[in-house]
Design a protein that fits this description.
There is one protein chain. The chain is an alpha/beta fold. It has one domain: Alpha-Beta Barrel (TIM Barrel), CATH 3.20.20. The protein contains 8 helices and 11 strands. Helix 1 (19-31) links the parallel strand 1 (2-7) and strand 2 (34-42). The radius of gyration is 17 Å and the shape is globular. The structure holds zinc ion (2 copies).
């Protein structure tokens, strides 16, 4: 049985935030052996498209799957007040912090892919992980999302291996106590690899950084997708426990 904390109930506005829609996700949680599902939609939908109290109503009707409430909040270095407002908006079980932007560039968007040509890729990896590390030091988040998302299109640094660029930053992240995701959605992207890659998962273990497993599902049938592969990598690295979040407090269970 799995825990999947990175699930988008409305995807990219593919669906409405209704009980009926949430129930579809619960159906697939059952099918794909997810005993605890956490919804963490993109924060840009928070005020107008999401009704986070719906999850409590659905939980009242569902006994066999535990439902947690999260949010995936983008990190922007210059938006402290806006991020704080989102963090304080609801009594979440956890908050995922994700870097999807470098400056104004949404580097994981297919439409903005050309911008990679304007970067030295070693410097780009360093800039990206520095931003992730900066986000971890703020008091906003519980979990860091897809921490090597910068590889999404398969573009890798040339002079150094990604794990070598990441190494000093992971030491800093370990001091924050944050959890990092092993996110299987990279398998569905051009890079065709789980986020993060195995050498980085190994370094998470070596630095005592806990991990959670997640699908980053944007559709009901994607709940729990490939979590068996993520668990296998976590076990191979040495992990035996997985955090469970309730109202932003952690307890550990067997992986
Ligand atoms: Zn994301
Ligand atoms: Zn996501």
């Amino acid at each position: 049985m799995y825990i999947d904390y990175h699930v988008h109930a409305i995807g990219h506005e593919h669906r409405l935030h209704t009980e009926e829609n949430i129930m579809k996700y619960i159906e697939f949680a059952r099918i794909n052996k997810v005993k605890e599902i956490g919804f963490a939609d993109h924060c840009r939908y928070l005020y107008e498209k999401l009704d986070l109290n719906l999850y409590k109503k659905v939980q009242e009707k569902v006994n066999d799957v535990s439902i947690k409430v999260g949010l995936e909040i983008d990190y922007y270095p210059d938006q402290h007040q806006e991020i704080e407002k989102k963090v304080n908006f609801f009594d979440y079980d956890y908050i995922i912090g994700s870097v999807h932007y470098i400056g104004k560039w949404m580097f994981d968007s297919d439409k903005e892919k050309k911008e990679y040509e304007n970067w030295d890729h070693d410097k780009l990896y360093e800039k990206y992980i520095a931003l992730v590390t900066e986000s971890a030091r703020k008091d906003y988040y519980d979990i860091l999302g897809h921490i090597d998302l910068i590889k999404i299109f398969g573009i890798k640094p040339v002079k150094n291996r990604p794990e070598n660029i990441f190494a000093p930053y992971l030491k800093e992240i370990s001091k924050t106590g944050l959890v990092v995701e092993i996110n299987t959605n990279g398998l569905n992207k051009p890079v065709n690899e789980i986020y993060p890659s195995f050498p980085i998962i190994q370094m998470l273990f070596d630095n005592n950084i806990p991990v959670t497993l997640s699908s980053d599902a944007h559709h009901p049938e994607e709940v729990g997708r490939d979590l068996d592969k993520a668990r296998e990598l976590a076990l191979k690295a040495g992990f035996r426990k997985i955090p469970v979040f309730t109202k932003r407090r952690i307890q550990y269970e067997c992986l």
